[in-house]
Amino acid sequence: MASMLHQIQHQSVTIRAPLPLDSGQRLDAVTIAYQSYGTLNADKSNAVLICHALTGDQYVASDHPATGKPGWWARMVGPGKPIDTDRFHVICANVLGSCMGSSGPATPDAITAQPLAMHFPVITIGDMVRAQAMLLDHLGIARLHAVVGGSMGGMQALAWTVHYPQRIASAVVIASAARHSAQNIAFHEVGRQAIMADPDWQDGQYYASNRAPAKGLAVARMAAHITYLSEAGLTEKFGRRLQARDIKSFGFDADFQIESYLRHQGLAFTDRFDANAYLYITRAMDYFDLADPHEGRLAGAFAAAKDVRFTLVSFDTDWLYPTSESRRVVQALQSVGAAASFVELSAPFGHDSFLLDVPALDRIVAGALTANI
Amino acid sequence: MALRPDLATIAGAVPAGARVLDVGCGDGELMAALQAKGVDARGLEIDPANVTAAIARGQSVVQGDANRDLADYPGDAFDYAILSQTLQTTERPDRVIDELLRIAPRAFVSFPNFAHWRVRLALLWGGRMPVTRLLPVAWYETPNIHHVTVSDFRDLVGGKGISVEAAWYLSGDRPTSDAAASWRAEHAIFLISRAAS
């Protein structure tokens, strides 16, 4: 349950400097939990920042402290891996608004010591990136060799190129987009409504009670999980097969394997994620639109980023962040003359392909990181 | 591995420091040779396996189609555009040439010469679409949908007021003369430049 989640100790730093937010509000101090791997070299030129996705965390290549499962990108990050920690100093920070040690809705109020809950300000992808920049300042890293991310991590990587183009040499953006589409927002709203419709949500003030909106959060996760997969993948993995039974029950048990799988995914998620954090982070993603401050012209956002090397990858079965969104970014980059690479890879796993076994992705990430060395 | 003769010719002719777009760059073989001599080379390539291979070797390549995606590049984004062995596969070669010379003031265009004597003989005596060393695929599955000869190309660019700054004609890996090119060149490489307006 969420209460246990908040008892985990994370490596973190609290920076007592104000962080002005896109909403106009500000945080007076920011706590950022992070993990790092590999050694920072003498001239501090080998740092790679990995940005995690919506429900990801800083444990990119180490076992998750709540679930004990391997890091979410252990296949990509490590000694001899595409993001080679023998070569690079890899940093991954829990995003602002999340629940794995960084400032978020579970953070206690400075005066009352009660969790802020819905008094935590609404944050944006840009705010997350500014918090990461504060962490790098604290660590004495002026410039990143690369910033790498998939999905919401890719949004942060793109935001890095817009907000801090001088601080990064290269950006690797996988299965992502420069804006959230109406469909993306719609799915998130379903998830948020599921959480807020759970009586245990209690207007977000559930931390001190013995009840947390696990049912609502589980439903949110179930709906979202479908969007991370492809229809062909679902059909191949589950089809219409029944779950541990030979005949239909003519009831509302999880007759089908896909139902059982989704219920399990939803429930397991509530052990490692906070419902309010889910509300805040999905909101940040919905507000994301890099072209918005430039009258809808995405190229305007990248005007200062023409010296950054970009690598974008999409997957042909990803209908959540389809190839057309990556192409839109590539077109904007070409119009400002930035060095951009782009490829649509074929993989059966839908949006989740960026986390799974796609050998071509490994080669691309490795190539993108070693291009200018 | 030695560079294909037409690519070696182009690689030798691009000056160091130039900005180049290689349209149909394959797995980045020519770009690698260009980068080795200090050229800022970027690529456009339709085949995702080739794009992956090129990015894996550290190159900047965008997956795209020369028929449509050249429109995404702003005018004068490059010093040179390169279209090697691709013109004859495009839907509208004339428009692709216009696009090349919009993106860059100069372009290298290379193609297999369909008037080479072996091709002529194959048609004359065999009465069949030729299958040769440079055109190894049967008519029904060849990607070459717009076969072109040296004379056709000269006529096309001449009609557009495009200047030919240089031309190289290859028979195997040996050069052949301008006058004999129509018959003897298996392969032609033109350096063309934008019509003065």
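The radius of gyration of chain B is 16 Å.
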